[in-house]
Amino acid sequence: MTSVAHSRSEPIRDPGHGEAFTGHMISMDWTETDGWTPPQLMPLAPLPVHPGTIGLHYGQVAYEGLKAHRRSDGRMALFRPRDHARRFQRSTHRLAMPTLPEDAFIETAELLVAADQGSLSDDPSHSLYLRPFMIATDVSLMLRPSRGFRFLLMAFVAGSFFDPDVEAVSVWVSHDRVRAFPGGTGDVKIAGNYAPTFPAQRQAIAAGCQQTVWLDAVERKYVEELGGSNAFLVRGRGPRAEVVTPELTGTLLPGVTRDTILTLAERLGHPTRTTRVSLEQWRADCLDDTVTEAFACGTAAVLTPVGKVVDPVGGDWLIGDGRPGPVALKLHRALVELHHGVLEDPEDWCHVL
Ligand SMILES: *Cc1c(COP(=O)(O)O)cnc(C)c1O
């Protein structure tokens, strides 16, 4: 391992949006003959990239996103790193890339957090967002899988995306474009899944919305995801209101946050259900006040209440009174407390350093 020039860094006070990078990165290379090299911690720096690199042309690139939080006792903890490691294995497998062992994934994450935790201020709404990714490094324009790969891990300081005092977001329904389709790659985190969503994201923003509602590719009927987050609905009101999310059909990303919310909701006394949710049912159930809340969730966005659906075909509707609802706020608080070691952690999801 290379020595570290600046192991202590100044806290980043203004995290901005995904650009407040920390000082280091970790790099490992893989070849067919030697497997993985040991992880190297080094200052974050540009990569020399040959323009004929396979990863650039054919998208043989997979990634993950996980967070490290500073707990109330001052120690750092990665949230569910083993689940992220396993999903990364599924993503790389889908693109004919080598497997990074779970323990190596976690070891590199520990290494980077130890080196760069000084960048994280004591603002409890900030966290370290870790971005592990694997790229195909062979230089060839033949349409074939690479034989050499690089694993990289970098991080940025993330602010809180959602302020409970702020309004809920609006979402825009994409009827023309789809994000994922049966047999495709919607259930893994690969680079090629995201640029094709950018035009719809632009349409959503032009319509005054923050996110896209993705429908299923076959019937164009069922809600799958909200932008790059998983979708939730709340049916009914009060302490026994039901928490519902679209079932994993193979075309939506099995979010670690989605799974965490399902568990937390049950623990707080809310029945949960995973099922197919049609756009029409969502609309009808909001109009007769059966569905009272909706929210999006993911590692980056944590939990974002949705107040309005803008549907260019069927017309717009409000969810509840259009403001963040009590179940979303309660689940958001529980999730943040779990991240910070305040809430009990019977599943051992917090990986304390
Ligand atoms: C990453 C991601 C999510 C959220 O997954 P988490 O594991 O909760 O971060 C949801 N949908 C898509 C498309 C994603 O890329």
UniProtKB/TrEMBL annotation:
Domain of life of the source: Bacteria
Cofactors that this protein relies on: pyridoxal 5'-phosphate
Gene Ontology molecular function terms on file: L-isoleucine-2-oxoglutarate transaminase activity; L-leucine-2-oxoglutarate transaminase activity; L-valine-2-oxoglutarate transaminase activity
Modification N6-(pyridoxal phosphate)lysine occurs at: K189
Entry similarity comment: Belongs to the class-IV pyridoxal-phosphate-dependent aminotransferase family.
Stored PANTHER family: BRANCHED-CHAIN-AMINO-ACID AMINOTRANSFERASE (PTHR11825:SF44), SUBGROUP IIII AMINOTRANSFERASE (PTHR11825)
GO BP terms in the entry: isoleucine biosynthetic process; L-leucine biosynthetic process; L-valine biosynthetic process
EC number annotated for this UniProt entry: 2.6.1.42
The keyword DNA damage appears for this protein: no
Recorded catalytic activity of this chain's protein: L-leucine + 2-oxoglutarate = 4-methyl-2-oxopentanoate + L-glutamate; L-isoleucine + 2-oxoglutarate = (S)-3-methyl-2-oxopentanoate + L-glutamate; L-valine + 2-oxoglutarate = 3-methyl-2-oxobutanoate + L-glutamate
InterPro entries in the cross-refs: Aminotrans_IV, Aminotrans_IV_CS, Aminotransferase-like, B_amino_transII, BCAT-like_C, BCAT-like_N, BCAT_family
Pfam families per UniProt: Aminotran_4
Classification of source organism: Bacteria, Bacillati, Actinomycetota, Actinomycetes, Kitasatosporales
Biased composition (Basic and acidic residues): 7-17
CDD domains tied to this protein: BCAT_beta_family (cd01557)
Residue span of region Disordered: 1-20
Enzyme class: transferase
Pathway: Amino-acid biosynthesis; L-leucine biosynthesis; L-leucine from 3-methyl-2-oxobutanoate: step 4/4; Amino-acid biosynthesis; L-isoleucine biosynthesis; L-isoleucine from 2-oxobutanoate: step 4/4; Amino-acid biosynthesis; L-valine biosynthesis; L-valine from pyruvate: step 4/4
Keywords recorded for this protein, A-Z: Amino-acid biosynthesis, Aminotransferase, Branched-chain amino acid biosynthesis, Pyridoxal phosphate, Transferase
Matching Gene3D superfamilies: 3.30.470.10, D-amino Acid Aminotransferase, subunit A, domain 2
Designated name of the protein: Branched-chain-amino-acid aminotransferase
